[in-house]
Amino acid sequence: MFFRILVRKGKGWVHSSFSCKSLISFGRSFSVHSVLLSTSSSETEQTNEDEIEAPIAEDIFKWGPKFGAYKQGDSTFYFLVKNYADAGDFKSLERVLDRMKRERRVFTEKIFIIIFKAYGKANLPDKAVVLFERMMDEFQCRQTVRSFNSALNVLVQAGLLERAMEFHSHGVGRGVSPNVLTYNLIIKAICKLGLVDRAIEMFREMPLRNCTPDVFTYSTLMDGLCKGNRIDEAVSLLDEMQIEGCFPSHVTFNVLINGLCKKGDMSRAVKLVDNMFLKGCVPNEVTYNTLIHGLCLKGKLEKAVCLLDRMVSNKCMPNNVTYSTIINGLVKQGRAADGARVLVSMEERGHPPNEFVYSSLINGLFKEGNSERAFTLWQEMIEKGCKPNTVVYGALIDGLCREGKPDEAKKVLLEMVSKGCIPNAYTYGSIVKGFFKTENVHQAILTWKEMVQNGCTPNEICYSILIHGFCENGMLQEGLMAWKQMLGRGCKPDTVAYSSMIHGLCNAGLVDDGLRLLNEMLCEESYSQPDIVTYNILFNGLCKQGNILRAIDLLNGMLDQDCEPDLVTCNIFLKNLQEKLNPPQDGREFLDELVVRLSKRQRVVSASKIVEVMLQKFLPPKASTWERVIKDLCKRKKVQMAIDIVWSKLID
């Protein structure tokens, strides 16, 4: 007797015939999803697939016991459930469950846990919750903490955190006794919601329920505290867990080191690394990458490079993330050439750079005026088979526009499109800015229209570029139209857009309108706050109209907003005090008073910079002003320390 079955192979189905003996062996050796179609004395008998509807034919149960193929027991259904769950065939799963109900089979909790995992994998968390609720009433299977945790994990992994908290409360309220895994899952959900205090309450509740926190509990809570900027509390947990006999892992240390690095507390982060060694926990790639990233954020590139060497000496090989972090740090410090040298080292150690590293370097080299090296790097990237993406093309296009070559940038744009890379708003914005820079307003407008026609929606930055371009070229009406269009499309103007619009209005003599926009920026609803560029535009506009006193009032308002004056501010007032007042003033008294005001506000660095401007212009401050600034700059302890060092050197 042969069984004709339909066997799943890949994404399709194929016919196969098996004897009873072969079928038993086949079923034991492989996890397959099969449907018994018919029985036949010949292997070659054909069966029409379309006639088969049920996932499990009656014959498999009818003939199975006689030939030893299957026992009519619950284990058969268990393997069927597992196979259908692995395949994600939920319709067939429901049919199996229905048959088990009809035949009054015993439902074990293990079956439901398998189905919960399948629902989680298929991103169907609601079905997992519904099935959990059906377990007792419909299938007479009592829910324990194992099935409860499985369903809870599905909700947490799906990001339904509030739903997970409700499910947890409901389950515990109905008598489910939570274990360590339950607490780990719910603390994770609570921390992700930012409710760290509530997570701490859950953590402190654990001993009351005879649950001892494990390393995952501590690590999860530490991560939540670090993200809530409560680093000291997170570090104190490290001591607490060790007192309780729970030894920290790599994850625990890495969470704390990452939190300290983000806070900028590198000294404590390094001490934690030393603590790792003492605990026999050797730093891994994540540890070193986190430290290197923190050093780069602090601008300590030399120490970051030294740590890279230490990483290699400790037989912990740097990866693409390590090198990319250092290269990006160098680029941000204006040292793209050094970044290119690190790129060479990266390649020598067998780590080919990706397109994001190339885009960062190319962009940095162009910003530093090293366009020749940027082009060379572009060619090297192409030759080495690294396919440029939208980001890399955008870096090249922006660089060409910075060089005053928007026409060449437009050619690169066409090449980019032909290679299947879709330009984004930033790419088009760079070209529009490039054409405005070369005073080719017509081409700038055509590029803008091309961007819109190609379905690329302009963002706030694009509108800022357009408004700035119009106002710089004396096209105030066009700038106002762009401004209204931006607001009409729900785009919020940034500081650049506001400053550009104010500049256009002031150039047209509409300083009062510019001041109204400034007040709009200062209102609470605006997320764009004026910077020194914005204020300097208005200072210049007011002084041109001869309203120096009004400009000084605005300066006082600026100081109240914690915005610092710069060299341009000083030059605007000095020029107009000398030219517009009768009798003219040299500005010494004005700047001296400005230094005093800054000093009173404890803005010592700004005050000292104004003093530098005064000395450069041969306008020395008053003796009392000198005394005030020097006292602020030279704190008594630091001065005494410097004196002690000098004396010790003299004695030696």
From TrEMBL:
Transmembrane segments: none
PANTHER family, sorted: MEMBRANE-ASSOCIATED SALT-INDUCIBLE PROTEIN-LIKE, OS03G0201400 PROTEIN
InterPro entries reported in the protein's UniProt record: PPR-containing_protein, PPR_rpt, TPR-like_helical_dom_sf
Name this polypeptide is given: Pentatricopeptide repeat-containing protein At4g20090
Alphabetically ordered keywords of this record: Repeat
Annotated PPR repeat ranges: 144-178, 179-213, 214-248, 249-283, 284-318, 319-353, 354-388, 389-423, 424-458, 459-493, 494-528, 531-565
Domain of life: Eukaryota
Alphabetized NCBIfam families for the sequence: PPR
Recorded family membership: Belongs to the PPR family. P subfamily.
